[in-house]
Amino acid sequence: MKKKVYIFIFFCLTINLFAKEQIGECKKNVYKVGIIQNNVPVCFYYEDVQGLISVIKKFYIRIGTDDFGPYDSINSWLFASDKIIYTALVDDELCLFVNGKCLEHYKNMSNFFIANDNESLVYAYESDSGVYIKSKKELGPFQQIKYFLVDNDRIISYVVRENSKLYIYTEQNKYGPFDDVTDWIYQKNNNYAYKVRNNKKEYIYDKNGLLAGPFDSLELKAFSSNGTQLAYVTTKADKKTKAIPAITSTLWVNKEKINEGWIILNVGFADESLFYTINTQQEGNYIYFANKKKGPYIQIGDLEISPNKKTLAFSYSYDYSPGEEYYLSVRNEQAGPYESISNITFSEDGNNIAYVVQKNNEKYLINKQNQFGPYENISNITFSEDGNLLSYVSSDGYYNNYILHTNNFNTKKYSFITDVKFYKDILTFTVKMNGLYYNMLIYHNTEFIGNYINNKFIYIDDGIIYVE
After folding, report:
1. What is the DSSP code string of 361-417?
2. Cα-flanking dihedrals φ and ψ of residue 39, to 5°?
3. Non-local CB neighbours of 342 within 8 Å, separated by 6+ positions
4. Residue range 406-458, pLDDT digits in tens
5. Are 96 and 103 contacting, i.e. CB atoms less than 8 angstroms apart?
6. How many Å apart are CA 59 and CA 48, to the nearest integer?
């Protein structure tokens, strides 16, 4: 399987904070904790075991007071309200476990999740007879499953290889054969589209069949929020010169040609309104947003639309010189000049903004009148839901020694930090330590191994598991 499909499950984030309650113990080498119904704690831990020539790790899961393992690895997992579902490798066999019980053995498995009924599992797996998609019904065997898309527990589309050719299946039809299906785009439950290649030409297929093509080259860009409009860019090279500048880019929405220029970037929708940047080569760069045209600019850098779709922020420059300077434009305001501007990030309501600037070859985070730094790298800028709290991650020039900064608190250094997310005023994140990924949270300016699971905060302190 060459590319994973990421399925996003949205939970209600209504949080009730209670006094902490002790619900269990796990005085082990814990790297993750969770919780299922009736405040049953779950902890992931490992033990170091002496092998023939080295120390190896064996992995376990404790559910309540029951331990399951050892496993050679625990590959993936998810929490439902009443169960922990995970895959683990034991003696080179992969098994799907529910609450510690192995349901099935597979050669390989990917993309599993639980549907909204809290019972149905959906996933792809490989056995000796081929590869399959498993939901309420089983599809296969196939030579290869390249993509599959799911709405709740229903397979709405999938791309598979049969007899050495690729085919697109929808709920009603089968399309193909194709030489390749190289990309896809999915707008929640409203629509989806694939980029396919046949005889050195590229086409777009959606759930209704052929939408557009043939083209020399195309890029799928974005769906409108209701899924009725698909924006994409096609590129045609000058066949005589083969030179990089001798190209023409065309922006399309469905079958309608919108604009044409040298380079078209930053294509998206604010609800149903199209936005993009275009370089006309002769006149310069322009921005189109909410039926308005801004420019020309010599260069356009970062561009970001606020989550409420009302505010545009972008960086720009008026020259190409080695000492070029960039400015930030938001509404009718301007900041700068700086050597560069990047990582523009809005709060959820669009009323707060943070961004990274470079001055004298050093990087700073700017938020309102506050400046943080200097640092060598800044990433993972995150606002709390109300926009009042801000966090960000710094790292050194070699992308090591990651530190999470928030509310006048700095974590210790880690090999890597990702998945930074506020739930109310509590910050959760994932770090890499000793070759493992740990789920963490910051509570009362203290770091704990913990997480936000099933609408509850759970963390471990000195081997004692607490829930809030």
Report:
1. TEEEEEETTEEEEEESEEEEEEE-TTS--EEEEEE-TTS-SBEEEETTEE---BSEE
2. 55, 40
3. 301, 302, 315, 355, 356
4. 988 999 999 999 999 999 889 999 999 988 999 999 999 999 999 999 899 99
5. yes
6. 9
CA distance 354 to 390: 9
Q: In what order do the strands lie in the sheet with 154-162?
A: 144-151, 154-162, 165-170, 174-178
Alpha carbon distance 103, 398 (integer Å): 43
Rg (CA), the chain: 25
Alpha carbon separation from 295 to 268, 300, 321 (Å, rounded): 18, 10, 19
pTM of this structure: 0.87
> Which residue type, as a one-letter code, is found at position 22?
Q
Determine the Cα–Cα distance for residues 34 and 61; give it in Å rounded to an integer. 11
Sheet of strand 416-423: strand arrangement = 21-25, 464-467, 456-461, 446-453, 436-443, 426-433, 416-423
Average pLDDT over residues 151-169: 91
Q: At 119, which amino acid appears?
A: E
